[in-house]
TrEMBL record:
<dbReference type="InterPro" id="IPR016181">
    <property type="entry name" value="Acyl_CoA_acyltransferase"/>
</dbReference>
<dbReference type="GO" id="GO:0016747">
    <property type="term" value="F:acyltransferase activity, transferring groups other than amino-acyl groups"/>
</dbReference>
<feature type="domain" description="N-acetyltransferase">
    <location>
        <begin position="1"/>
        <end position="151"/>
    </location>
</feature>
<protein>
    <submittedName>
        <fullName>GNAT family N-acetyltransferase</fullName>
    </submittedName>
</protein>
<dbReference type="InterPro" id="IPR000182">
    <property type="entry name" value="GNAT_dom"/>
</dbReference>
<dbReference type="Pfam" id="PF00583">
    <property type="entry name" value="Acetyltransf_1"/>
</dbReference>
């Protein structure tokens, strides 16, 4: 993600996370948190942004990193076309390269999502993530914590 991508990514954020507000400011502060937070976008053939992913290192810079998929969003017009899967599979090697520059390796990946979100299937099939816990009524509904272990 570049600064010039923030506006288009914010539109996608606004459309996909309808209960959240201040989409541009949210993405901008995450973007500015580099290298703790790594942000990437997906572009279609017309160089239009169709999705984004935010990876966040948790609990300090460590030799073995616990990484969170903070957010993954695909424009409603482009959902169901493999863009979310591509965002994970194509950016994860870039994230690992960045971690290696800090003499770190990836240990686990976790993600939280609504218990009724079909994205659970994506996290399971792409990363091998499994539901470890359900937290009732956390944000707008029950939330599941999924962990992909030993993915480094």
């Amino acid at each position: 993600m570049n600064t010039s991508d923030l506006e288009a990514a914010a539109e996608i954020h606004k459309l996909t996370f309808v209960r959240q507000k201040q989409s541009y400011e949210w993405l901008q502060c995450n973007f500015n948190a580099f290298p703790r937070v790594l942000c990437f976008v997906a572009e279609n053939n017309d160089k239009q942004i169709s999705g984004f992913i935010i990876w966040t290192q948790k609990s300090g810079f460590r030799p073995e990193v616990i990484l969170e998929i903070e957010q993954l969003a695909v424009s409603p017009d482009h959902q169901g076309k493999g863009i979310g899967r591509g965002l994970i599979t194509q950016t994860l090697p870039l994230v690992k390269e960045r971690l290696a520059q800090n003499d770190s390796v990836l240990k686990h990946i976790y993600v939280t999502t609504r218990a009724d979100n079909f994205a659970q299937n994506l996290y399971k099939s792409t990363l091998g993530a499994e539901v470890e816990a359900t937290i009732s009524n956390l944000y707008s509904a029950d939330e599941v914590l999924m962990v992909a272990r030993n993915v480094g």
